[in-house]
Amino acid sequence: MYKKVIILFSFSILFSQNSFKSIHEDSFEVSSNISAKLNLLSKTTNIYSSSNLTISTFAGSGTAGSIDSTGTNATFGYIEGISLDSKGNIFVAGLNNNLIRKITPEGVVTTFAGSGARGSLDGIGIAATFNGPSYMAIDSLDNIYLTDINTNLIRKITPDAVVTTFAGSGTKATTDGTGTAASFNSPWGITIDSNGNLFVSELAGHVIRKITPGAVVTTFAGSGTAGSIDSKGILASFKDPMDIDIDSNNNIFVGDRGNHKIRKITSEGVVTTFAGSGTVGSVDNTGILASFNHPDALTIDSKNNIYVADFSNDNIRKITPEGLVTTFINSDAGFDGPVGIDIASDDRSIYFAEFSKYKITKVFINTPVVIDTINDVTINEDESTTISLITSDADGDSITFFLSEDSRTELRFDGDDDYVAIPDNANLNYGTDDFAYSAWFNTESMQGTQQIVHKRSGNNYEVQLSGSSMVAYIGEPGNQHSLLFSQISIDKWYHVLIGRTNGLATMYVNGVVVDTITATGSVTTTDPLYIGSDTGSEDFIGLIKDVAIWSHGLSDSAVIAIYNNGSSIDLTKNNEYYIYSDKLKGYWRLNDTSTIAKDQSGSANDGTIYGAESITSDLKFITSIFSGSSLTLLPDPNWNGQSIITVIADDKYSYDTTSFTLTVTPVQDPPSAFEWISSFLETIAIDSTNLDSTYSLQWSASTDVDGDSIEVNKLSLN
User: Fold this and answer.
1) Cβ atoms of residues 597 and 606 within 8 Å
2) In 3-state terms, what secondary structure has residue 289?
3) What is the DSSP string of 377-388?
4) Which residue from 410, 413, 409, 412 is spatially nearest to 533, judged by alpha carbons?
């Protein structure tokens, strides 16, 4: 959304509730942009996933209010600051509700302090009052220090919710002193250093104040005149400094909102521009070559990376200790005015407030574990094999290995004219109507074009691999459109689903939207539906299973349910989110050993399998032993055959899988030795009188583990 901001604060006013809207409903100018923005208040952000982030609403319904409840059943007003204590509780400053709310790690929201009335009464819990509580800092004992902007006070709240005034006279000014003898000019951001000193940014005073543990207040940096001068102490200048935070070296970082910069202040008071050119923008680069658009709140992790709520860009930026600025989460996530932000002590969970959506958003950071491909293994019957498991996890998480116990048969296409043909049927043709189609696949090659599913006369609907990219087509010649995903690897299972709803086609890969396009062309053709080939040169190499077609578009939540974290579900049965089994018009699991591709949808669209080989994934004949990062497989004695082995690497937050084929070749074992029943010392004397006599020799039965019949071919007589 486009936002416009004009000059901030060259005035002396008392912030009213409407002023809060002015601060952050981009700011200080009533315009149609603000009205348009306020129309979005009832919208909620959909869950947004990338390769290493999961973003969800942690608390807040998106409707303004002050209801105590759990998760999205609770309500908030305009939120500014949030802060986490040592137990993982989140405290929320309700800027216009004049409340301090507490959210437990389980998402339970309660009112911790404040009656909701405007005022500056000290008291316990809801007996106290605030007027514009803004930002908070929490010390090692879980005491909260709070900037109360309209009363120009610094308040302290103990873990037992006892509220007192720590510093400030209530007079709007920048006056040094001790405790209530000092005064502040619109205190906003606040942080605490390793020595227990508080630092407070004055939004209207354009300075940074220092408060010792004994409540002695001094001006630490800033002349009091709006500007962007780098210098030391009061020779430096700021313009509308917002939130501040401190790193492990006691360097202070300031969201210098009016200058569109991030400023750094050393423990000696030396002020420099750490990042930001001063020009409005969202350029990623290093230091002053980067740009911001009203950077508001910031938080610092244990490695001294800074996360910035870049308010008017509706995104979250990240700055490394070296000053490299990147966009951590871009505006596609749908944020509306990100403000107060804090990070958990494990550096994995970031929480921030969305000012105009009245809610708390959670970002969980996890770089997924990756397991390397395992080549197919061939051993002889009665042998074992040990395989090294190579993984990477950038977060350094502990990794656990286990094998998938899914016992099933899957269809392997060898790239040489293997395919499945499904005869044309009216219930597989949808014209310009809504529909969807999907498949699971695991490719062994990145070469050339490989068809996964297609039903086309020209390009009606299909999905194929082209090198390491996946391309889907929808529409007749002259009105066809394509969707693209370009991160396919070999020997990995992928789920792809393409759906069309109201003329908009969407491609999902592993439950996540990867591409969308307007596609209104007809998808009706008299051609058969083919799986694994175009019966020409575009043959698939690898495994395909669970091909499905629906006469309806599917919801995002249904697609996520179908992906099911990498474990396919039975599409003929509905669950909480997948509710489209009655729209299923073709469903070929490809999981038996016959040459018939049975349609499980009930639509009688059975097909024929040509050439593709059925391979069984079954561990009942194989013993597996994990030792550290190695896997030993011991097939049962005298068992031979093929089995698809799927290894799962799990770091508690994510997992990755790789599959390989174990081939156990038969070996001709000799028959078991026999034992003589007749005595081998027995002597039979043969002469002319007994040449025609019959003699009986006995020995025990010999067995053959291969099941072969045993014949006595020669009896040697000495």
Assistant:
1) yes
2) helix
3) EEEETT--EEEE
4) 413
